[in-house]
Each structure stands twice: as structure tokens, then as C-alpha cells.
Amino acid sequence: MTAGSVFDPAGLDACIACGFCLPACPTYRLTGDEASSPRGRIALMRAIDDGTVDVFDAAARHQGSFCLGCRACEPACPAGVPYGRLLEQLRDAQWTGRRRPLLVRPLLAFAKRRRLIRLLGRLRRHARFTPPEPAPADGDTLLLGCFERVLYPGVSRAAADTLPGVRVAPDQGCCGALHAHNGDLARGERLAEQLADRPGRIVSTAGGCAAHLAAVAGRDRVLDYSEALLERGEVPGPVLVGGRPARIGLQDSCHLRNALGVHEEPRAVLRRLGDYVEVPGAGDCCGAAGTYAILRPRDGRRVLAAKLAALADLDLDFLVVVNPGCQRQLTTAVRRAGLRTRVVHLAELVAAARDERR
Question: Are residues 249 and 314 both part of a single domain?
């Protein structure tokens, strides 16, 4: 790899090595190792760009995969370093061709097959209808996602049912977030641009997808489900468990919170749905981090451990998530821990509250 050909120079130059990012970084908290912090990784990136370190060096490859990509360093950074973008550029250089992790390859191959995604989504009964006319041509369209519509089709159905006037476009494909985060940045941007070519705003039930789309299409074109729900003012409640308001906690989506600044909106919804309980470390990564829990499951569990202990103490009725990767990670972990807490997507809990009122 030629020196100076990997990273945006302005992004690297923005870092002033102040260290404010260190306590925000999950891998630095795990290891105490400067190399496993955003500041350390940016120093590594600079060494790659000036030719001191080869981009395929073993230590460089380790840091490229060890980082969660949660972007918790970005809100903590006084200089506005676009760390998430720099990490995507690092992986774009490292995870190419045969060097792409084996477990990532079939996921990216699946996400490229729009017809297969749509077929499996229909078989899984994802949201596949459009509200009756009149509907404005530039109205809001629900993003179905690729893996979410297959793994958690109830989320799109619940979102469409609880957002009056939202449209469901039957021909949409992947937004490209999976590609951008896993070494295929150009394809990830092309896929996002294809969705952005549609009129109106895009409503997402997945924090990672929302952040990626906003980076490509603009923040004004993208809404999180919680934002769209509050905008419409259609929040039912409360959800009752044994005749009392349910005890509800939230796990933030890292990208939704750290890249888009959306964290109060889902909490505002949950306070109407029951007895909201703030989970210690709710804004910290759960260890799912897209493909991270698949590629580095042991490290993903290490990141999750403190959160799981807090959940055991809180004895919640529901732990709400706003991203499918978090839903998969936490559903599995909560079940293995034997907790009675049920992990649900925000849209699913809103739909349950609406059904109770009928």
C-alpha cells in the first residue's frame, strides 16, 4: 500500500492527541493499552500513511478488527475527529479480496442480492404494504433493512403499524452500512445513494443504518423511528405487567447516539410506555457492533459483561433496543443468563402498548 493513500488527511490532522477519547473507548477500558485507544489507532494510521507501518502489518490488522467502531470517542473529542470514517478507510484498505474475514464474506454477498432479500422478507412477513392514498409523493418511507427484515420481521410490521402515513417501498435493498463498516466502502456509499435517490425522508429502525444513510444522504433526509413517532405525536401507553406499569430500560444504539446524537428521543417514548429505568452504561456498546460479535465473540462478551451484571440487578420487564445487532446480542445473552427480562425493539413495545389500548 502506497504511503499517503489510505486516509483523508484532514481527518488525521484534526486529532490533537489530547486523550479525551481514552475513557470513552471500550477497548481501552478493557486493556488499558494506549494502542487500543482512538488516539493510539490514529497514531497507527498516521504511521501507515507516512509509510512507517505497512497497512497489512499484524499489529495494524489486529487494531483494525479489535476496534468496535462504536464511535463513542466522537462525542468526547473536542477537535471533531471523524474517527468512524477513518476506521472505515482502514478496513477498506485491510479487508480487501482474500484478506476480508471469512465470516464477513457471506454476509456481504447476501446483502448484495436484493431479490433474495425481498423474497426472504416476504416469506418472513415483513412490512410489505403501503398506506392508502392520498399519500404525498415526498412522504416518509420506512427502511426495511436487509438482515432485520429476515431476522426480526416483526419490527418493520410494528413500525409501519404505529407510524401513520409512512410508506413501505417494496423494491428497496440494502442501505450499504454493512459494506461500509466491513471493508467495502465504495459499494456501501453506492447502495446508500440508491436509496437516497427516492423522494422524501427515510425512517430507520436500525441505528447503524440511520447513521450510514445520514452520512451519505444528509441528516435532514433520515429519521430514527423514535423521532418519527414523536413528530407524529402518536405514543400510546402504558404497557402493563401484572396490573402495574412495566419496568423498562434502554440499550442505546452506538451509531444512533454517537453519530446522530439521538438518545433522548427513545427515552421520551419509553417514559410514556411505563416505568422507565436508566440502565447503567446504557450508552456504552453492548459488544454487538455489527459483525464484531461474529468475528470476535470473546471480546464482544467481555464488552457486554458489566452491562449484563447491571441488568441482573435491575430486574426489568423489558429491555428495549433500537438496532437489530443489539437485539441479537442481548437476546442471546439475557437468555443464557436466565434473566426474566424480555428484549424487544422500541417499535414492538409501542405496538404492544397500542394493542392494549384497543
Answer: yes
How many domains does the chain fold into?
Answer: 3
pLDDT score recorded for residue 294: 94
The answer to whether position 99 is within a domain reads no
What DSSP state is assigned to residue 338?
T
Residue 3 lies in a domain: no
First to last CA, the chain: 62
Contact 239/318 with Cβ under 8 angstroms?
yes
The 10 Å Cβ neighbour count of residue 329 is 27
Question: Residue written as cell 456481504?
Answer: 108
**188 and 262 together in one domain:** no
pLDDT at 46: 96
Residues 204 and 177: their CA atoms lie apart, in Å, by: 12
Give me the phi and psi of 245, to 5 degrees please.
-60, 135
Low-confidence ranges of the chain (pLDDT < 70): 1-4, 129-134, 136-137, 358
Residue 134 Cα distances to 44, 137, 166, 172, angstroms: 55, 9, 12, 21
